[in-house]
Amino acid sequence: MEKSPGTRMMAGAKQPYLLFEPKQKYPQAFCTPEDIAIAETVRKFVDNEVMPRRDDLEGGFHRDEHRALGALHHLYRACGVLGISKMSVPEALGGMAASASARMIVLDELSRGDIGLANMVAKMAWVSSIMMACRREDLMKEFAPKIVSDPPYAACVAISEPSGGANIEDPAFSFKTLRTIAKPEGDSYVINGHKIWPGPAGPMERFKTKDLAGHMGYWTVATLDPAAGEEGVGIFWVPPDAPGLSFSKPIEKMGMSWTDENAEIWYDNVRIDKRYRIDTQPGQAAQVLKGYVIGYGRLSGGPCLTGLSEGVLETALNWTADRTIAGIPVREHSAFAMAFGDMWRLIDISRQYYLSVTWQASSRNHGRPWSKEMMAKFSAARSFAADVADKVCKTSMEFMGAYGYSFGNQVEKYARDYPIVKLWLGGAQRDRMEIAHGLYGTLGWPLRSEK
Ligand SMILES: Cc1cc2nc3c(=O)[nH]c(=O)nc-3n(C[C@H](O)[C@H](O)[C@H](O)COP(=O)(O)OP(=O)(O)OC[C@H]3O[C@@H](n4cnc5c(N)ncnc54)[C@H](O)[C@@H]3O)c2cc1C
Q1: Ligand 1: distance of its center to the CA of 195 in Å?
Q2: What is the DSSP letter of 91?
Q3: Whole-prediction pTM value?
Q4: Which residue segments constitute the domains of the chain, with CATH numbers given?
Q5: Which atom of ligand 1 sits closest to the CA of residue 172?
Q6: Average pLDDT over residues 30-45
């Protein structure tokens, strides 16, 4: 039998790491005992179901599409059966109406297993938040059966365009850089434009498999008139098989190769019923986009990047427990032990911070989600967690030597998957700018004052 070159490691804690037990990680200042019990359930699910399939989610080293999508759809469905997709849906519509903290810590636990899978699951909360923030109970009622369905559906929010994603997410530009146009015509809107990167996106048949019921459609950001800025922007639901909608092949990327199938989307005279414009009042879409789509979107990067960092640290702890230098396990040399202490400290601070910001946003005591203050904190939570992931991935890979760098030993895949979570929704530079705006009380670049 051919020997497998290089050790193949299973991700996940080999022994209980006391400080990573949910009761230690998630303080009751921000999470109820019920929230923590949910985190424990998801943690077990990740250990038993996700960790053994991490290589499959990649399709193996050769990125076999069939193997990757089979594993992804299987696990995505299992997340639905566990109740994760129902967490953002009101109880009256068959959901769990879980708290924002509970939803965040579930993303943290899932990302410890696979950040791409967590991202796919989070799309359901994203589209629900748009409809609920726009107070469209009618649309929630219409879509809830699909959000909670088994087999599940996929969903997508389409913002970024070829001329630049970060511009659209810069408050200084007031959505004036959008080039996807929605034109009112009788009882319809007719949409023309071009998006790039939204995911998962593609022809309907890609989303009809043994474990996937289909695609729920594209929550599309478009403008009636770019010059009208915040008054012109709207959010439109476009059916996945609307005439005039077409897609590129999935874009090849460094990480999340299949867990986020990103594509170009063309809208060529796509006609939708007027009631599928989700926002209903002038200026509402701008607030919802800033606060819920971009703001909470960035905040949810905090738990994803923190959970991933924990998964990486556990992998390095496992490896260095067995690997020896001068007959002593690597991690028992004090230089390594201190570095592990440093990394745990960063992960825990990142976790406590995103939970605090989640609590602040939910309590509304610190500003509305679209306020400069909360946008600064959402951006700080994401960018801090990203810096922690940078540090933990780099150091852990160094500690594992060639084994950290090679495929199948886990750290390499974690290290390729996470950078996009720092780059999307405007990216790491915009995060810093948002924090500066919160500090200076300014609105956009150049740092001009709000009138
Ligand atoms: C895997 C993946 C998944 C994605 N998922 C989605 C999705 O579901 N929906 C969607 O709509 N899009 C999605 N995107 C797109 C993503 O959100 C954008 O790529 C991102 O917002 C950055 O836009 P850009 O790539 O056009 O970079 P640019 O806008 O060209 O920015 C380049 C660099 O300049 C910085 N920058 C640009 N403008 C400013 C500014 N005004 N102030 C400060 N810094 C600035 C940016 O931070 C960045 O570092 C995804 C992308 C990938 C790769």
Answers
A1: 12
A2: G
A3: 0.96
A4: 18-153 (1.10.540.10), 155-282 (2.40.110.10), 285-449 (1.20.140.10)
A5: 41
A6: 97
